[in-house]
Amino acid sequence: MITRLLRPEESWRWNQVMAAAFEWGYNLEKEQAEATREKTEEEKLEQARNRCFGALSDDDAILYGCVNSRAYDCRFDGGVYKLGGVGGVSTLPPYRRKGAIRACITASLRDMYANGFAFSYLFPFSTQYYRKFGFETGAAARQWTLPLSALSPKDVGGTIEQIFPGGDFSPLLEVYNACFADCNLSVVRDRYDTGLEKDNLMEQLRYVYVWRNADGQARGLMIAHKKQVDGHTVLDCNHTFGTQNENGFLFCDAEALMALLFFAKSAFSSDYEQISFTTRREIDLASLVGENNSAACRLFWNGMLRVVDVRRVLENCRCRGKGSLRIAVEDPILPQNCGTWALTFAPGKSNLVEKSAEAPDVSMTINAFSALICGARDTLDLAWMPEVSVHNGAAPFEAVFYAKPCFMMDLF
């Protein structure tokens, strides 16, 4: 078996593998024509963002499996860094459990490291499977299902506008950028979602609303459709793995949240019993609900994250106060990340990071390090993480490993 980077004109091959693995429809003639068609400059730029590694037979005739990685810019502790969004992980059924995916993911991660990536992210079919490759569950998200009758939102003013197909969708990007400006691993976008702008929303029975405050700033958005759940009519605004950007409920602050809920109750309470939407982990709305017994909040983990370059991330992580911490990291795929890293930090100064021969304050796998440094876990979680061993309980863990906003809203 050989593992290599597949060429853009071979896209029909990896699309065929994905179609067989995920049981999608596939037209070989159409796919081959599309793969060899002369691309526009914009399409070439999009192709350059995408790198697909394949595991093939020694004669290159059979593509056993493949892993796709797409380049994004993401936020981390006030800076912008490269992130590889992993998707299309697939193997032809006759060649499963023979090492094809392991070879492809290994090649893909090493390629990311060589090209200056700091992070990687994916949405797993199996958490345990991807933990083998250094990924760990990211920050949790909350899915709220609230009876409209149990809400008593205030009218905070401002205006609601509805965006129809062909309209100006730029206010959605304005809201997204404001909501995720401080959120680790969130993707830096230049448009909210091109697919949303192309979709026939009216045929799909999806509706888009934007709330502007008294100063005319777009501060909240709601993309909703009607859904029947357990006999209840629900105004469904959830953005989850299966509905990435198809729905949405984003608010930049408490005022925007109040405005959206006031709009939902006043405009839809005669036709809908409940509203359902997703928020980041740190947003707790229990105090807004008049009768909690009829409300529900489901916690779920929105994908898996991985640090690709430990040194780069430690050099740029935001620490609290002044101090030093020695962190031993184990990474079986990227040996450049292995060893004990001495991190020295102080207000107003750049982090100093170097390899150390001294005993570490803490030892951990790349999985645990990824979740901790991104803020999906914090110091209080150290005792409950089986892949972490604390050697010096007096070390300033709270200055480095603390909870941070961390969320991914893009689908790979």
* CATH third-level topology of the largest domain: Aminopeptidase
Mean pLDDT: 94
The global form is globular
What's the CATH architecture name of the largest domain? 3-Layer(aba) Sandwich
User: CATH-wise, what's the superfamily of the largest domain?
Assistant: Gcn5-related N-acetyltransferase (GNAT)
Description:
This protein folds into 3 domains: 2-117, Gcn5-related N-acetyltransferase (GNAT) (Aminopeptidase), CATH 3.40.630; 141-301, 3-Layer(aba) Sandwich (Aminopeptidase), CATH 3.40.630; 310-399, Nonspecific Lipid-transfer Protein, Chain A (2-Layer Sandwich), CATH 3.30.1050. The chain has 10 helices and 20 strands. The chain has helices at residues 11-22, 28-36, 41-49, 100-114, 127-131, 170-179, 194-198, 254-268, 310-316, 366-374, and strands at 2-5, 50-56, 63-76, 79-91, 119-122, 136-137, 140-147, 159-163, 207-212, 218-229, 232-236, 248-251, 274-280, 296-301, 304-307, 323-330, 339-345, 352-355, 362-365, 388-390.
